[in-house]
Amino acid sequence: MKSNNKIVLITGANSGIGNALAEKLIAENYFVIGTSRNGKIENISSENLFVVALDLTDQNSIENANSIIRNKFKGIDILVNNAGIAPDLDKIKPDFESLKLTFETNVFGLVNFTETILDFVNENGKILNISSIMATLNQVSKIDSTAYRMSKSALNMYTKTLAARLKDKNINVNSIHPGWVQTKLSTEGAPLTTEFSANGIFKLIETEMETGTFWNAELQEKMVW
Ligand SMILES: NC(=O)c1ccc[n+]([C@@H]2O[C@H](COP(=O)([O-])OP(=O)(O)OC[C@H]3O[C@@H](n4cnc5c(N)ncnc54)[C@H](OP(=O)(O)O)[C@@H]3O)[C@@H](O)[C@H]2O)c1
């Protein structure tokens, strides 16, 4: 391991924003534990990357990933809960299947994995929950993507409760909106590259964000819930 010794665990590091963030952090001398469902991250080859298979909807997979990480490392400094899905993006009605799938990954899976690995996050560490501006309650004027919006609002509540729980351990927990980014999850017309978004998230990682707050990685500013 040749790095600044800061270890960052990123879920969904094989694709999109998570993949670009893994590349950025490795370039900045962090050590990255990257998860993907098939246990591969094809486009990054670095001695500062360790890949673990993780499917957030599968209890066995969560337990296996947890024990592999604990056997190999002594702790993690930063957890980036990035993996997520949006099957009802832009749809007007929340069909039950999308609602179920979205919550299974973005909420139940994320919380389950986080709670499993939580005591392995070092004191003074950070947890970043990749949320979305689509979760904001104060500014909803659109009627689409109900399941996705609801899942990210639920995630934001987890950010708040976890931040309060972890205050004594000095572990900061924040929600991050990565911007509207060109990935396989997003709709056509997204203006930002994954590299731009990853740079913005990186700057926030290096910033002192007050715990329990919501940040926009594109604009580098605090957001309303
Ligand atoms: N793109 C945007 O404009 C935008 C805006 C706001 C928020 N976000 C958020 O940013 C995060 C990253 O999304 P992205 O845009 O980069 O999309 P993406 O390229 O589709 O990346 C999503 C990642 O999540 C993984 N994933 C999906 N289901 C999973 C599961 N059950 N278990 C483990 N991993 C799973 C995917 O793995 P596979 O490759 O195997 O599917 C992939 O690595 C998401 O939380 C998303 O909600 C994105």
Short description:
It comes from Flavobacterium rhamnosiphilum. With 225 residues, this protein is of the alpha/beta class.
If you had to describe this structure to a student in words, what would you say it looks like?
Helix 1 (about 15-25) links the parallel strand 1 (about 5-10) and strand 2 (about 30-35). This protein has one domain: 3-Layer(aba) Sandwich (Rossmann fold), CATH 3.40.50. The protein contains five helices and eight strands. Helix 1 (about 15-25) crosses helix 5 and helix 3 (about 95-115) runs parallel beside helix 4. The protein has an eight-stranded mixed β-sheet with strand order 3-2-1-4-5-6-7-8, with helices on both faces. It is α/β, with parallel strands linked by helices. The mean pLDDT is about 95. Bound molecules: NADP nicotinamide-adenine-dinucleotide phosphate.
In CATH, the homologous superfamily goes by the name NAD(P)-binding Rossmann-like Domain
Percent of residues in β-strands? 15-25%
**What share of residues is helical?**
25-40%
The bound ligands are: NADP nicotinamide-adenine-dinucleotide phosphate
Count of extended strands: 8
Predict the CATH topology: Rossmann fold
Order of helices and strands: EHEEHEHEHEHEE
CATH 2nd-level architecture: 3-Layer(aba) Sandwich
Low-confidence stretches: none
Number of helices: 5
Main sheet record: 8 strands, mixed
Number of domains: 1
- Give the integer mean of the pLDDT values: 96
- From the spread of the alpha carbons, the general shape counts as globular
The main sheet orders its strands as: 3-2-1-4-5-6-7-8
Compute the separation of the termini in Å.
Answer: 39 Å
Gyration radius, in Å: 16 Å
- Class inferred from helices and paired strands: alpha/beta
Oligomeric state as shown: single chain
For the record, the CATH class is Alpha Beta
InterPro entries: Fungal_SecMetab_SDRs, NAD(P)-bd_dom_sf, SDR_fam
GO molecular function: oxidoreductase activity
Family: Belongs to the short-chain dehydrogenases/reductases (SDR) family.
Protein name: SDR family NAD(P)-dependent oxidoreductase
